[in-house]
Design goal:
By secondary structure, the protein is of the alpha/beta class. It has one domain: 3-Layer(aba) Sandwich (Cytidine Deaminase, domain 2), CATH 3.40.140.10. Helices cover 24% and strands 36% of the residues. A 6-stranded mixed beta sheet has the order 3-2-4-5-6-7. A two-stranded parallel ribbon has the order 1-8. A hairpin with a 2-residue loop joins strand 6 and strand 7. The longest helix is centred in the first third of the chain and has 14 residues. The protein is globular.
């Protein structure tokens, strides 16, 4: 189960809506081994595409080095889907390289209500998990 603060969910949704019609992407870092998402890191979709995302390689290297220096890891890897449900595509599954991360998808296909779902992706297997949103 992913336990996450409301403020972080709201920031993912805001980023997805702001970048729409292109997919948005980023990570939420947390202390190594904690499974606690804490530090929101909005990233650039290098593809600038409504159907695909890719972290900019230079930015990803910088962000991952910063996490290493802070004894953090990517607890959440998120991106948006602009016209489809919040479910990982085959491409999303093939690029999932953080076996301990929660992969959160935000669908902005309905402008009135964003759909937010979380998955574990490991060795090509996709498992949806519940999200507990902490109100603060």
């Amino acid at each position: 189960m992913l336990t996450i603060r409301r403020e972080l969910v709201d920031r993912m949704i805001a980023h997805a809506r702001r970048d729409h019609p292109d997919e948005a992407c980023g990570v939420i870092a947390g202390p190594e081994g904690s499974d606690r998402p804490e530090r929101f890191v909005e990233m650039l979709n290098a593809e600038r595409s409504p159907t695909f995302y890719r972290f900019d390689s230079g930015e990803q290297l910088r962000v991952w080095r910063e996490m290493d220096a802070r004894d953090e890891e990517p607890v959440v890897v998120y991106h948006s889907h602009t016209a489809t449900e919040a479910y990982p595509s085959r491409t999303d599954v093939s690029f999932a390289s953080e076996p301990n991360a929660h992969y959160v998808l935000v669908s902005t296909r309905d402008p009135e209500a964003a759909e937010v779902r979380s998955y574990r992706i490991s060795d090509g297997a996709v498992t949806e998990e519940p999200i507990e949103i902490e109100e603060q």
